[in-house]
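Same chain as my last thread, 120 residues:
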Amino acid sequence: QVQLQESGGGLVQAGGSLRLSCAASGSIFRINDMGWYRQAPGKQRELVALSIDGGRINYADAVKGRFTISRDSAKNTVHLQMNSLKPEDTAVYYCKMDLMPSLGPHDDYWGQGIQVTVSS
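reply #2:
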């Protein structure tokens, strides 16, 4: 019954900013990795940013210096601050967590996706 819910997407002009949030709900024992992926029309889903349990953070080269991932473990929430947005950032953004329910093995959980559109 664990679910992930993204919020904060929308339409923004190039150079603008958006902040995505993703909250996991349900009976959760612990969360390991938290990350954001995106998929543009006709393209493969790609990793945007990954927050690894323990503190290490990985970013896709295309977003380095512009995007910042952060996590609030107490709230089972991960954020993605997106600055200096470009039209090529337009995609559906998906939250993903490597998560262990209170009872059961760990697995990957995905949000439903949220649209980010950057106009030129």
